[in-house]
Every structure is written in structure tokens, then in C-alpha cells.
Amino acid sequence: MQAKEQRKSSEELFKSRLDQILDNKHPLFKLADSINWGYFEKEFGLYYVENKGRPGKPIRLLVGLHYLKHTYNESDESVVERFLENPYWQYFCGLEYFQHEFPLDPTSLVKWRNRIGDTGMEKLFYQTLSTAKELGLLKKRHLNKVNIDTTVQEKAIAFPTDARLYNKMREKLVTEAEKRGIELRQNYRRLGRKVLVKQGRYSHAQQMKRARKETKKLKTYLGRVTRDVRRKLVGTDAGLEELLYLSERLLTQKKDDKNKLYSIHSPEVECISKGKAHKRYEFGCKVSVASTSRDNWIVGIQAHHGNPYDGHTLESILTQVKQSTGWQVKDAYCDKGYRGYTYEGGTDVHIAGQRNKGRPKNRSQRKWSKRRNAIEPKIGHLKSDNRMNRNYLKGVNGDRINAYLSGCGANLRKLLVAFFLPFFIFDRIIKKLVKYFQNSVNNISRFCWSRLKTAFFRDDYYTFLNYVLEIIFI
Known about the structure:
This protein is α/β, with parallel strands linked by helices.
């Protein structure tokens, strides 16, 4: 083992370090040097045990991959693949030399997320705001005005229909019963598949009476299999008991019931209606988002289950903003969905579009109320750019983790723009100067030199200066 380590160290003598071959003005390079990576070593070191089992992967590598994943909208597999090609990503994750092998298996990211949980991911979100504060990009005055709104984080499930749910639940029960050696009277595999196809065809042809008849058959098959498994179950089996509970819940629920079962593998999914014309119902969970009115920093983000009323989520999101930034919000601007809120803290809550009869709003107040609309495109970017549009993580904790990481990705994008902006402005100034001189030469060719000479030799310096200014600035 020592000889292998010595050979490896001798090979590194002939390699070039990443910090020597990369551009130290690159935004990702500068961001890597600005984040306090030692904070994660301190917080997550408790989850690791020395001298037991296989050595764990570096904490900075795992944190950096999660940051990059939601900043650039990548999956677990694609972020590992792109890591192998991008030296700036490798430097961001703490590697000293360029690596030609995959740093880990993508499933290691899943296991690490389950290990640190949603509380650990919340610390990743807090650290992005701490970095912005240390760089002077997020200041206390930014927390004077905050916009708050809710949206739906959809789960990665198929659109729920009764026929598909009945058939999928029956297939799941049959599979688990066979694993445990339970001999069923009939499993309905062939009949169930045939009836599901007929139901889909009848629905497509708008023959709804026939489609309902086939759906009833699928429900009957599920009921028979459920009762058969319940009779033949011996002892206690937590996994099978949970499936039987979900099956009985699915068989008894009706059209207008609340808290219905919409997915077999994600029973926590809720049906939420936000009044959208193009998407009447969304299946997932509600997420509260708080952003600064001035610069649109995401200073608070939370996933809520139970489809709570928007006003009841106000206190928790404002408490999180204070914990993440250390500053109290002075004014919070919300839409009319927050009317009737029960918050009684130190923040003044303003409902946009609502007139106060006792005291009319001044001009500044109306301006900030209109500025509340800035959170709507920010939520759109969270969904399209930072993986909040469709959540692939499992369970209630997966909903919270995905929400926190989406907030991390949004803030890291702003940090990258902040590092890139000075060079962008300098580049634009250079282009303006080049264009200015080109226009000057072109404008000189347009003017008649005789007019300039005439004005100069006649001592008409005022006219001469006017011609020169027109040449320069037109």
C-alpha cells in the first residue's frame, strides 16, 4: 500500500496543478475560493466514522456536486459525467489535479442526501447567503423589502386515473405476495392488462359508459387480490401491511374525497389547484418562496405538505429568513392569496392590490407593491433552471431537499453573475470605445474638409468646435 502511494505521489510531481493552468478570473474559479468549505467539514463531519468500513468521499466533493447539479440543471448521472470533462468543476469540488476517472457512482449522491437529510441541505442553502453577505452582495438594506409567494413543486408521477391506479396497485400486491411465498387464488395478470388496454381505447373514443365498465372490472380485481392477501398473511410484515393499507384506502376513496391517493410509490402527493388555465390541477406539494425586492436573492424557501392556506405559511417563512440572514424583515409584500393571515411578528405585511380604507398608500408604497410581481419570474427560473419543476426525490424529505437545493442553485447563479459582471462591463466599455473611434472616422469622411478649413482660417473657432463635436458624438 505504501509503495502504491509513493508511486502515485511521484506521478503527481510531473502534473500541473489546476490552480496553475486555469484562469483565476473565471467566475467559477473565484466562487470556489469564496465559499467557506470548512463550514461543511465541521457540520457534516459528525456523519462520518473513522477506521470503520470503506473510507468516505470528501465532503467538499459531495457538496460541490450538489451545488453544480442545481446551478446547471443536471441530474445525478449527468453532473458526474460533466464533472469528468470540466476542469473548473473539478477545481470547484476541491481537486488539485485533473482527474480522468469518475469520482463516485451517482448513487452515492442519493445515499449522502439520505444521510444528512433535509436539515443538512438547509445548511447548504444558508451557506450561499453567507457567501453573498461576506462578498457585500447581500446587505441588511436588502431585507427591508421582501416579496413572498407560494407555488407548486410537482412530483415525478404520471397523471392519476382510477384505472391505472387500480391496475398498478394490483400488480404491486401480486409481486410482493409472490416474493413472500403467498399463493394467490388468482393474480389477474393477463385479464388486468387486457382490461386496462380496453379502458384506454374506450376513453380515447369518448365511449365513457364502456370505459367506466372496464374501470369497475379493474377495481373488482384489486379488491379480490387484496382480500386474498389479507386472509393468507401470517404474522406481521410492515412492508406488506403498508401496501394493503394503501390498497384499501384506494378502494374506499370516492370522487369528491379530500386527501386522496394519487400515486402508489409517492402516497404523500397532493392535488393542488392554483387557478391556472393551462394546468387545472398540479400534483405535488406547496412551496413558499421569499425573495428580496431589490435584487431577487432567494432568502427563504420551504416545502409544505397538507396543502396549507398561504397565510398560515407566512410565519414559518419569515422565521426562516431571519435564521438564514440574521436580519429581521421590515416589509413583506404578498398577493391576495395571503388575505386573512394570522402572523403577528415584527414584520409589516402588505397585500398587493388591496386598498386600505383608513390610510391611503403613498407613492413609494404603491411602487413596492407593484414590485411584488418580480417574484413570479423568479419562481419560473427556479422551476426551469434549478430543477424545481419536477421533483424526482423520494418522500416528504425529498420534497424539502429539492426545494432547498433549488434555492441554492438560484443564489449560486447570482453569485456567478456577480463575478462575471465586472469583466462583462469592462468588455462593453472596450467595445464602446472601439465603436466610438470607428464612428469618428466615418463621420469625418462624411463632412466636407473645406468647411472645417474655412471655419478654421476665418478664425470662426465656435463653428469649428461645433463641427468637431458633431464628428465625435454623432
